[in-house]
């Protein structure tokens, strides 16, 4: 488990029972941290954005750190995601905001951050939630749309887009995305929005409102996790969502 803090990245190697102080290179104020498993190593890969606008990465679970090249100097980092490529190359994604926060960009690297390509540039409101599914699909929230593409798509415009419509036909602005821990079998993707929670059970092809019991109130964050069958109504998936009033909601991911 890793934690981004104002004093650096703290690590736990015993499921959060104890924590280690930040190591050299990560002992700076950290804005966002993301983890992924490397295809060539059993140690997790850690990828972070510092509050002074730099990217750092560790190949050995946070013991040693390296600064990454950045073609987007001066832009604010909004989000990070990472996955392992089929050939062992590490795939990284960075969401940034420029132009005073009015433009959002998605940057892609398939070589661990040595080279970057701008995959997407859109008008935005300073948020760009990202999540990578186990099959390599990347889901991005842009305004009220969920955009999806595979890391091996040939062209930068090869995106599928699904619009999330709120009650009364308004836009449901997306604030967070998550995939089911059983995504390979259930294909579920979840979206927190300004109009509640939405769910897809077909790998992002379509989304349905999924806010029964909480109405259409704005949600700030969500996560999907595994659970005992007795807790999750036999689905094995629980979804937690955080409302703007600080309330934490829980629901089974079962259809």
List keywords for this structure.
255 residues, mainly beta, four-stranded antiparallel sheet, 1 helix
Verbal overview:
The strands form 6 sheets. Strands 3-4-5-6 form a 4-stranded antiparallel sheet, with no helix packed on it. The chain has a 4-stranded antiparallel sheet with strand order 7-8-9-10, with no helix packed on it. Strands 11-12-13-14 form a 4-stranded antiparallel sheet, with no helix packed on it. It has one helix spanning 183-186, and strands at 2-5, 8-11, 30-37, 44-50, 55-58, 66-67, 76-84, 90-98, 103-109, 117-123, 130-132, 137-142, 145-150, 160-163, 174-179, 189-193, 196-200, 208-209, 219-226, 237-243, 248-252. It is mainly β and 255 residues long. It is built from 1 helix and 21 strands. The model has no long low-confidence stretch (mean pLDDT 88). It starts with a strand and ends with a strand.
């Amino acid at each position: 488990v890793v934690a981004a803090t104002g004093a650096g990245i703290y690590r736990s190697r015993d499921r959060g029972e104890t924590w280690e102080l930040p190591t050299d290179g990560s002992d700076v104020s950290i804005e966002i941290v993301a983890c992924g498993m490397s295809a060539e190593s059993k140690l997790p890969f850690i990828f972070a954005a510092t509050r002074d606008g730099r990217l750092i990465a560790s190949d050995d679970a946070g013991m040693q750190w390296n600064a990454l090249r950045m073609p987007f100097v001066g832009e604010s980092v909004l989000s990070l995601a990472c996955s392992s490529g089929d050939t062992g190359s590490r795939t990284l994604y960075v969401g940034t905001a420029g132009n005073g926060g009015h433009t959002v960009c998605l940057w892609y690297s398939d070589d661990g951050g040595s080279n970057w390509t701008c995959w997407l540039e859109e008008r935005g409101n300073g948020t760009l939630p990202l999540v990578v599914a186990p099959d390599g699909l990347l889901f991005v929230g842009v305004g009220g749309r969920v955009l999806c593409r595979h890391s091996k798509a040939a062209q930068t415009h090869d995106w599928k887009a699904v619009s999330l419509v709120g009650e009364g036909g308004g836009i449901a602005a997306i604030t967070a995305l998550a995939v089911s821990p059983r995504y390979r079998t259930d294909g579920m993707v979840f979206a927190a929005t300004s109009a509640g929670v939405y769910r897809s059970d077909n790998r992002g092809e379509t989304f349905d409102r999924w806010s029964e019991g909480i109405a259409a109130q704005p949600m700030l964050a969500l996560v999907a996790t595994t659970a005992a069958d007795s807790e999750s109504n036999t689905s094995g998936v629980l979804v937690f969502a955080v409302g703007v009033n600080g309330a934490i909601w829980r629901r089974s991911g079962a259809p």
